[in-house]
Each structure stands twice: as structure tokens, then as C-alpha cells.
């Protein structure tokens, strides 16, 4: 028998169950390359590796597609959940409405109407004709009106700002094209602040580098990043010489922006966030807009909103009212900036461009407005300069919404909550913008003489250098100007001026390119009519920028109007920055209280008021007394106060000092007292009031017992005249500030008409600082009968969440001069009171009464009845109120007609 060979075990293991060899399982190209023994060659290895790499790429592509589908599914699921939540809210609200008695009554009424008048009946058509007929007519009229291009009437918010802007432009230049700065023409300086932005910063930088407008510089401020952001920035800086990187410790966004703009050399400025990006034509379109409108200082444009991964954010709740078309990613922002400063809504957005002259005038971003630094800057821009929407519609910017953005962290950072404080400060800023300034102008020549005349025409005050050495640090802006003939040694800056003064060196003619700011001066300005002249060569400025000079020290103007407006805006903005720093970083109070007495004359009643303060039983080392001289040129008040101090204050160890406030008006004087006070609580006492011996103690005890109270007032008891005039009525005491509430313990007032006023009014210094002090467009000036500054201050304090109360145990006596007890005083007080209340309504401090006719005829009918009274006093009061009502009606009618004026802030 022949021997049978057993098959090799290796071959049996490698055999395919179907009878195929391993070679037959390979692709044809590989099978042919296998040697007869069955081992693959080097070519086989390479082919296998290529095949595996190709399969891995296919798998990776499939995984990416799957990931994108998962993200899209999550995005759709989130939108579905949002819509379901909205639907649940709507259904819940519908159910709530359906259960209400008003809805049930309405349904019964509609069913009754349907039974009596079926929908298609003639009776139903006759019933609805008076409604639908005028409605269709009004709709047609509105469409026709819109086609004509005529303006729509203002609402009360836009009308409020429109009135301010017209008043501002009445005394300031609207066009600041005559202001030249040491910048590089056509260059756009883009500042990019970034903190731990490794996820998105590459996209943002690439969008800037990919601009069609190539004349730009990119200043990246690395605000202490701890991730890989620094390495990414170094990579880009090495690739493009237009990029500069400023590394600093974390100082937050406002300070990062300011530090970045200190290095800017461009004629145009903008900034962007690390998670957003420009569209390719952003700079080209924005620069073109400002070039077409030379008088505009800043413009803003429309944006697109995108999601976390850069996808268009459609059907989003963000900017829902501005989406065009509805539900799209295209956001068309409002074009009228009139309500930007009145209603808290930052609709300027992230796409903007402004000129270097705006930064020169306005200064840095506020370090106290983190999260609101841009909104605060745009409102500042709108107050002093010309802010407009771009003259094109298409979006030029991609604004990203994601979980770690500042917008998404609103509740965590308290941005919305801080808006209230910002809006109160903005109201003060507009009031401050219209206050007169204090100027001292030294030197002779055409420029100085013309400037003195222009300052007088604007209603400002001109004094000599060093005339007022005890001015308060805030609320009294001071600008000192000294003329200098370029070429010689510059004059020495004066040292006897307040620390808050703006020291300006005025040069007639062109400055040399190598001119440096002399030591001690804040600003050096040359005035030259040559339109082609440039203040400085930008190369010299670049070197100073490298030393962090900040380029806010040198400028050139072409004409007197530009010079006046430049110094005016610069002085106000610098002073506002000091006030804001005092508000946000105020030092601890040195004393418990400061008693402030404002006066403008030397009088015996001032002596009695100060003596009543000297008699206070409160410890002398815990309070001070401050007299504000509102007519400091005469010096009589200073002499009288010095005499009283030596006689009634020094012997008992109590402090009494005097400061000057040359700006006329009670509100100016009170603000000067706030600035100079060192006490925690400020007590305002009239110069003809006499305080009880325990007045100070009772008032401070009320503040201690009510920590939420920002303002507390007390009783004001009028000292009746002797002898009493025959016409004098007891109920007329309020016309001379008599205030006697009907309760015997501390009570919190809920409405403005319950608030304290006048001769016995106190507040925490913190509260008054936060609201910006008293509004200077209210309050008595000279011998007028205006007022209302306490009402406005009280409403502002309420907006900040503080209480206002009355402490009846705090009492003063009001010793009014006898010559004020006249019927003319009654008439003028009635008229002034009505006007002040309406002014507070029109300025949106208190609720607005929109109607004119009904209140007018109601008041007139009542007064006509009282005109027939046998009492002379009642007849006189009725006539006074009748005249005041008609005068107020005329004022209201004029306001309603002016609301139809074309908004001054819209583009032509």
C-alpha cells in the first residue's frame, strides 16, 4: 500500500472555508504580485498601506459627516425645545386669560352681538363701518405718508434726546473736520482684545487679514491668557508685519481696549472680539461711508448672527425684532440713534468705525463699565459728537452667540442690572454737557481775544488765573488757556489752579513736526487757517506711541469754532472721567456728616443758620459744616463766615469752612458742596433756616435705623410773618416751603409727591454721587421761582433701588424774609410749580400726563368757580392757577408740534 502524505498544517490553517487560497482573497493587483511561496513583496506592503490610508480617510470623512449631522440634529432639537417652551407659555397664558372674568364677559358680549346681528347681515356691516372705514383710511394715509419720506412724530424718548441735541448744537460746532491729529491718513487701526481665546481667535485674525481694504494695522492685546492663545498670536505676528501684539496682565476688557488704542496710529479706529469676524468688505465699506460723510465721527452697520460653529443662526430669539426677513440671520439695526441714550438698548452693535478725533476728544473706555464699556462709549459719542448709521444696508459683520460669550453670561456678570446705574449716569452726563464752564485765558493776539468773545457768547464764565483757589474738585469744569508763540521757550504751566483743571497751550500757526508737549501742560493746540496743514508728522508720533504717549496731547485746528468745541468737549470728558472715578472708587468717609449751607449773599439770617448748627449736641469731631459761596467775587460771605467761625465754632471745637462756586444756581452750589464734603451723610440747610438743637442727631439716627434709605427729609415749619397780611392764608404756607407731614414717625414715601424737599433735606453722599448730583437745569437761579431738583434727585435714587423717607423728629424753622410775603410770590410760585412738574414729566423722570384738553378745561372750570368767591385771596389764587393752566397748555401744544420735526440725529 502506498504511503499517503498528510497535508501541511500551516496550509490547512490558511485555507479559506470555501476552498479558496489566501491569494484568491486579495485584490487582483495584489494577487499577481505575490510570489509562488505566498509571501507578499515590498510592493505589496506599500499597496496595502495606501489602501489602508484611503480607507481611513473615508472613515474620517464619514465620521465628520456624522458629527455635522449630530450637531445639526442637536441645533434643530434645541430650536424645537425652544418652540415647545414658547408654545407652552402661550397655551398657559391663553388658559389664564380664558379663566378671567373679563374674557368670559367679552365672550358673552360677542355671542349676544352675533345673535342680534349675524356676521353677514346689514346691521352688522352698519355697526362695523364707523370702525373699519376710518381704520382703512388711516392705514392708507400711513402708507401714503411713508412714501412721501416725511418724518413720523417723535415718541417721548426720542423727543427728549432731540431737544438735548438741538440745545447742544446751538452753541457747538456740528462739523469737526477742522480738527487735525498726528495720524496716518487712510490707515485703519483694528484692536483685538483676547483672553483665553484659542477656540476662535484664528478665525477672527484671518477675517481681518482677508480684508479687501489692505491699509490697516492689527493691534492684538493679549489680556493675560493662560491657554495656547499666546503661541497662536506669536505665530501670526511672525507672518505679517501689520500685526502688533501687546502682552499684559489680565486687566479686563475696558482697560485692554484703552491700552490697545494708545498704540493706534490710524485715521480710523475699530475693535472686534476674538469670537467674531469681519466679512471681507467690512473695512472697505465702512471707510468708504466715513469718507463720503466727512462730518460723521462714527458709523455703525448691520450684522449677521452666527452660532457656535459659525453656522447662520436662523430662527433665533437674539435680535428677533431686527431680523430681516423674520427668522433669518440678517440683523438690520435701527437707523436713528435718538433713543440710544434714553432707553437701555445698545443697538449700535459690533460693526462700527470711528475717527481718531473721536478718541482724542472722548478719551479712554471706562474701566468701571465692564460688559457695558461699548454701550457707554457709544452714548458718549452720541452726546458730544455725530453718530450715524451707515449709508448701506447689507450686513458686514458676523456676530457669534455661544455659551462662554459675555452676552450669554449676562446674569452671571450682572450686565443688565448695571445698565440701570449706567442710564442714571448717562442722564447726568447730558445735563453736565449743557452746564457752563469756567475759563481763564492768558495772552494777547487774535486767537485769544476771539476765544474770550466766543466763550462769553456761549454763556460760560471768564475769570483770571488763580482767582478761585478753593474750587471743588468736581462739577465745576475749569479750562486754562495760555498763548505761546512757537519757536521760543514754552511758558511754565501755572501751579495755583485746581488739580482738575485742563491746562491748554495755544499756539498760533503751524507746529514743527518735532514739537513735544511741554512739561506740566495737558494739551497743546495750534490754530492755523491752512486746510492742508497737519499738526505733526506721524512718524514722530509713532516714536512717542512706542513710549505709550497715547496721542491725546497734540492737535491742530483751522478755525475758532473748532477750537472752542474741541476744548469744550475735551474739558467736559476729562472732568466726567474724574467724577466717574470718584463714584466708583470713592474713599471711605472721614466724618459721619457734613452740613452744607449754600448762599450768595451776606445776611443776618445766614448768621442765625450757622449759629443753630453750632448749637447741635452731636459730637463736634464727627461732623463738619460747609458754606458754599455762590457769589465768590465779592468776598463778603468769606469774611462773614470767618467771623462766625472764630466766635461760634472754634471755641466748641467744631469745623467750619467755605468753598467757592462761581457757577450761579442752587444746584451748582449743592454739587460743589457734595464734591468738597467729607461726611457720609450730607444735610442741606437753607441759609434762612434755623435747625433744632437735636436736628443733626435725629436725622443721622434715622439713617442708621434705615440702611436702605438714600434720602431722608424732615419737617419744615414756616415762621409766620408779623404782622400777618390781610390776604395771608394758613394753607398757603407751602408756597414758602412749609412741610409738615401727617405722621409722627419715620415713613417711607412711595410717590414723588410725598418726597421731602427744601430747607430740611438730607442724603447719603454715596447716593448723590451715583446719580451724578443735582440736575443743574433744575433749581433756583437768582431770583427765579424754579425748583424741582429734589424731586428729580429722588426719582434717580429710586431707580437705583434706594428708599426715600421722612423723619418728623428732624425739624427746622424757615425764617423767610418779610419782602417775600407778597401775592406776587404766590402767583409766581404756582406758575413755576406747574412748569417744573411738567418739565420733570417731559424729561421722563416722573409719569407723563399726555392729555391736554381735558385737564385744561377741568382746571379752568374749577378756577372760574373760585374766581367768583367773596374772598380776595381765593380769587387771586384762582386767577393765578387759571393763567398757569393756560400757559402750561400752550407749552404742551408747542411740544406736540415740535415732535413732528425731522429728527436731528438721522442721516440726510
What is the gist of this entry?
The chain is of the alpha/beta class. The strands form four sheets. Strands 19, 20, 21, 22, 23, 24, 25, 26 and 27 form a nine-stranded mixed sheet that branches. Strands 1-18-17-16-15-13-14 form a seven-stranded mixed sheet, covered by helices on one side. The chain has a seven-stranded mixed sheet with strand order 4-3-2-5-10-7-11, sandwiched between helices.
Question: Which tags fit this structure?
Answer:
908 residues, alpha/beta, nine-stranded mixed sheet, seven-stranded mixed sheet, 27 helices, 27 strands, disordered N terminus
SSE blueprint:
Elements: H1 9-14, H2 22-25, H3 28-32, H4 42-98, H5 101-116, H6 122-148, H7 156-169, E1 179-180, E2 184-194, H8 201-209, E3 216-223, H9 229-239, E4 243-248, H10 252-261, E5 266-271, E6 277-278, H11 282-292, E7 298-300, E8 303-306, E9 330-331, E10 352-355, H12 356-362, H13 373-384, E11 387-389, E12 397-400, H14 410-413, H15 415-433, E13 438-442, H16 446-457, E14 461-463, E15 478-484, E16 502-508, E17 523-527, H17 538-546, E18 554-557, H18 560-584, E19 591-599, H19 604-614, E20 623-629, H20 636-649, E21 655-660, H21 666-676, E22 679-685, E23 689-691, H22 695-705, E24 709-718, E25 747-748, E26 760-764, H23 765-770, H24 789-799, E27 803-814, H25 823-842, H26 853-866, H27 872-898
Parallel strand pairs: 2-3, 2-5, 3-4, 7-11, 8-12, 13-14, 13-15, 15-16, 16-17, 17-18, 19-20, 19-22, 20-21, 24-27
Antiparallel strand pairs: 1-18, 5-10, 6-12, 7-10, 8-9, 22-26, 23-27, 24-26, 25-27
